[in-house]
Amino acid sequence: PINLGNPEEMTVLEMAKKIIELTGSSSKIAFKPLPQDDPKVRRPDITRAREVLGWEPKVPVEEGLRRTIEWFRKTGV
């Protein structure tokens, strides 16, 4: 398998807060117990993507979120 993603580490809580901020949502974050097999590190190892595909991210996480939110708004999905 090859991991694709941004190796900039961000917690689920940080990601949720950032999405709420960028969307202007009034959503509240619900805290639930984590599964036992929940990964402790949320940072993809993109070494194989670099080696096999010559790929690496070109967009910082926040900009990628902005673009994704914009796409969903434009397409009405």
Describe this structure in words.
- This protein has helices at residues 12-23, 47-53, 61-75.
- The protein has 3 helices and no strands.
- It is an all-alpha fold.
- It has one domain (12-31, 39-75): UDP-galactose 4-epimerase, domain 1, CATH 3.90.25.10.
- It is 44% helix and 0% strand.
- It starts with 11 loop residues before the first helix and ends with a helix.
- The mean pLDDT is 92.
Describe the structure concisely:
The chain is mainly alpha-helical and 77 residues long.
Question: What is the fold's blueprint, element by element?
Answer:
Elements: H1 12-23, H2 47-53, H3 61-75
Q: Which key features would you list for this structure?
A:
single chain; 77 residues; mainly alpha; UDP-galactose 4-epimerase, domain 1; 0% strand; flat
- Taking the alpha carbons of the first and last residues, their distance comes to 29 Å
Which class of secondary structure composition applies to the elements?
A: mainly alpha
Radius of gyration: 15 Å
CATH class call:
Alpha Beta
Helix content: 40-55%
**Domains (count):** 1
CATH H level, superfamily name: UDP-galactose 4-epimerase, domain 1
Q: Mean pLDDT, rounded to whole units?
A: 92
Order of H and E elements: HHH
